[in-house]
Write a structure and sequence with these properties.
263 residues; alpha+beta; 60s Ribosomal Protein L30, Chain: A; CofE-like fold; 2 domains; 5-stranded mixed sheet; 4-stranded antiparallel sheet; 6 helices
Length: 263
C-alpha cells in the first residue's frame, strides 16, 4: 500500500543527451546529487526513452528489411513497413490493427500502440527506440546505484512510458518498470468507512506516481528524470507485472492474433 498526505515533485535538471553506452546510473546520480540529493522514501521516475537510449536499443529504419507479414500489416495500417517490422519483432500478439492503428502485446506483456516503439525526439524519426528489454531490472539497477543518495533508503525507482487508453482520450504516463516499492495497492478484504468489505478495490499506485512525474517532465522539455517526495509504502515489491491484467480477464484483447499467424 502507498499513501501520502502531501506530495512534492520536480524534474531533475542538468542531464546531457544520452546515447548507446551512456552511464545513466552515474550521470543521473550526479544530477540528483547536484539537485540536493535524495531522502528516504523518495521515488525517482525515469523515462523509458532515456533508459532505452543508454541501453543501446535504437534502430535505424534504413537498416530494416520488412517481412511479408510487415508489408501486409503496413498496407492495412498505412504505416512505414520498416516501422511495422520493428513493431512485430517487439510483439507476441497483434491486438488491434486498422488505418493508422497498430496495437500489440509486447514480449513483456504490455498492451500499447506500436509495441512502445518510439520515433519522437530521435534523429528526426529515422531512428526508432525499442522499449527496455527488462524494465524491472533496469529500475532495480538504477535503484542500487542511487540508494546511497537516499541514505540507504527506502527508495523507489519507476521506469515510465506514455500509453494511450482504450476507453479514454489522451495518453498518460504509466509504470513499465518498478523497483523498491509495491506497484499495486490492494485493498481487497479491508473494510471501508461504512464497514463494507472491499472485493475489487486495487489502485495502480506506480502508474499514479508515473503520471505525477509526467506533469513536471513534460513531453517536449527533455527532462527524463523526476523525484516524487512525500510517499510512504508497505507491502511486497512485485515489479510492474502486477499492473498487467491477465489476458482471460481483458475484453480488449479478445480476437488478438499471434504475430506468427499474421497473414
Amino acid at each position: 500500500m502507498i499513501r501520502a498526505n502531501r506530495i512534492e515533485c520536480w524534474a531533475v535538471a542538468g542531464l546531457p543527451e544520452f546515447g548507446p553506452g551512456s552511464d545513466l546510473a552515474r550521470l543521473g546520480g550526479a544530477a540528483l546529487a547536484a539537485g540536493g540529493g535524495l531522502l528516504p522514501w523518495d521515488v525517482v521516475v525515469v523515462t523509458s526513452k532515456v533508459v532505452s537510449k543508454a541501453e543501446g536499443l535504437a534502430t535505424r529504419l534504413s537498416e530494416v528489411s520488412p517481412s511479408p507479414a510487415a508489408l501486409e500489416v503496413a498496407e492495412l495500417t498505412g504505416q512505414d513497413p520498416r516501422l511495422v517490422q520493428v513493431v512485430l519483432e517487439e510483439s507476441r500478439m497483434v491486438v488491434r490493427s486498422g488505418p493508422g492503428l497498430l496495437v500489440t502485446e509486447t514480449h513483456h506483456g504490455l498492451i500499447c500502440a506500436n509495441a512502445g516503439v518510439d520515433r519522437s525526439n530521435v534523429s528526426g524519426g529515422e531512428v526508432v527506440l525499442r522499449l527496455p528489454r527488462d524494465p524491472d531490472g533496469s529500475a532495480a539497477s538504477l535503484r542500487s546505484a542511487w540508494l546511497g543518495l537516499a541514505s540507504g533508503g527506502p527508495l523507489g525507482v519507476v521506469v515510465s512510458d506514455t500509453f494511450g487508453r482504450p476507453f479514454r482520450e489522451g495518453s498518460v504516463n504509466v509504470a513499465i518498470g518498478v523497483a523498491g516499492l509495491p506497484a499495486l495497492a490492494d485493498h481487497r478484504g479491508q473494510l471501508d468507512q461504512s464497514g463494507y468489505l472491499l472485493h475489487a478495490s486495487t489502485i495502480g499506485s506506480a502508474d499514479e506516481i508515473a503520471g505525477i512525474a509526467e506533469l513536471v517532465m513534460g513531453k517536449l522539455d527533455g527532462l527524463p528524470l523526476a523525484v516524487v517526495r512525500g510517499l510512504r509504502w508497505e507491502g511486497l515489491e512485485t515489479g510492474a507485472a502486477a499492473l498487467q491484467r491477465a489476458g482471460e480477464r481483458d475484453v480488449f484483447r479478445s480476437g488478438s492474433v499471434p504475430v506468427g499467424e499474421v497473414s
